[in-house]
Queue: 3 jobs
Job 1
Amino acid sequence: MLFVIGLFWILQVIMTYFQVKHYQSRIRELRKKGAIGIGTVKGKLRAGVIIILAVKNEHVADAEIMKGYSVFARFKRIPGLVGKRVNELLENNFNLSKAEKKALEIAVKTLTENHSLEGELQNG
């Protein structure tokens, strides 16, 4: 029994490693498209959510979401946000859940509060 628990623990560690690598690769790819904003909401009894926004010329160049309970969750594109102005993102629901909306708010906040990104958001 202890062997099986140990085996599952090792499998969990390996899968977490691959999920982190996937997360890092998505950030690298999205960084090529513009300034990055990341919003994270951790779930206790519900699925956690991560939203990554890539913004260029005050518009969303790309947006991805990862949600789920397990290490098998992967990022998926959010086409409804692409092309929207950053200041529009908080004015519309975009059919997002409460946790997804909160992650979006955090991503926008990280974009607008990060002084190193002000030029990107204002000047393009």
Job 2
Amino acid sequence: MLLDLTTVPAFLLASAVVILTPGVDAFLLLRTSLRSGVRPGLLTLAGIHTASIVQVAAVISGLGALITRQPAVLAALKWIGAAYLIYLAATILRGLWLTRKESANGALDATPAPDPANPYLRGLLSNITNPKMLLFSLAFLPQFVGAAANPALQLVALGVIFLVLAAIWELTIVLAAARIADRLRHPRVAKSLDMVSAAAFLTISVGLVAG
């Protein structure tokens, strides 16, 4: 057969486990949507999936395998990815410091302003600079090629399925977060969310370099 459909059930199950595991994308989408609403959340989602499409395409074309055979390139990508996550965490912590400073000056009820950064670009950079997605795709997708007569077409189909499933889940995060945002815009809640997000980005950056 041109495609091996017998591997699809196992692929769907494995994909669901991977997609539902919280990571940078989930934290970034949750924080953006809670703070800024649906449109910035959707723009962040679009940026994330632009990067994901590029990475999956790299795996299918063979470019991904070529990159992984270059330790210096992989190491550089890891450090760039970690540096960007640290930048995101530092930006959040700076916002917390400014909010605390304003509160000390009398603006006790001030709600944190939406992030000024371009949400599409932030989503794109957070994903494209993370080589773990590329390495994951290289290790994950080929396991489900099976007995397909056209392995490249099978990889394309699997890549599309994975991206669609991820987009559905992440769209759910954006819409749900934006829906409850009004109830969570109390300064203390916003501060707690920012602290958790900053801690998550810092932890993931350490794991990226150490891994």
Job 3
Amino acid sequence: MKKLIILFFSIFSLFSYSQEDFKKKIAQDACKCIGEIKLEKKSKEMMQMQLGLCFIKVSTPYKEQIKKEYGIDLSKDITNDEKMGELGEKLGILMVSECADTFINFVDQSGLTDEYAQESTAEENSAEFMNGEITKIEKDAFVIFYLKGDNGILTRFYWISNVDSNIELEKKYQDLVGKKVNITYYSADIFDHKINDYRKVNILSMLKTE
């Protein structure tokens, strides 16, 4: 699940025309390719294979840039599952910036979310807890809760995927300002184009009112 969340987070990524243009073109071509795949009556294995073929097709014209940027040589690494998996993740991140709905829908129907979900146990084991008061809520591409903990520290938490809650969170989250809550969250490193580096964010997984 964490990899998928990081993909969702990459919707914030922007591309500079000069250095990032080839990535944007790959993402656009990949979005077009998977958009042409008929999802009906296809097995998950077939859909995943077609996704892989799309990735190879759109990457090949830019193999030199990919080798320089990611250290993946498409001429030699095509049979390396680890390298190809790494390339798939990177292309997925680029695609979310171009066609989030199309890509997320395909990932969901292709069964890739099941693979990501297998990581959830490890994430839950590393989950952290906090109690406090919601002081502010920001709405952008994602909802961000500002929580003042019992220790007096203000922390931001990002609502990106399903959150376990004792209320109808989708309908009532805006009413939480000033309310005491208990939350569970985990941390993930995401790439922030503004600082050209990775930063750690807190991903909300459970929120319950007191």
